[in-house]
Write a structure and sequence with these properties.
By secondary structure, the chain is an alpha+beta fold. It has 2 helices and 3 strands. The chain has a 3-stranded antiparallel sheet with strand order 1-2-3, with no helix packed on it. Strand 2 and strand 3 form a beta hairpin. The longest helix is centred in the middle third of the chain and has 12 residues.
């Protein structure tokens, strides 16, 4: 049976509260994922700072982190 357009990962964001931990767990369940790559980008003066995190979704702990100023 194919999922309907209104089910699955596309509906995750609508029911997900603002808490990152619960969102990660819900997304992991929907995608059957064990790990997730997340990050952010911010401006610091004339530079841009990029941070990437590899998260174990079972324990919700960061496995690796890298920050780079470009």
């Amino acid at each position: 049976k194919k999922p309907s357009p209104s089910s699955g990962a596309s509906s995750v964001g609508r029911s997900c509260p603002s808490g990152v931990k619960s969102c990660s767990a819900e997304i992991a369940g929907a995608l059957n994922a064990q790990r997730m790559l997340s990050g952010d980008v911010s401006r610091v003066g004339d530079s841009v700072l990029m941070n990437l995190f590899l998260v174990d979704l079972k324990t919700n702990r960061s496995i690796a982190r890298i920050g780079k100023r470009v």
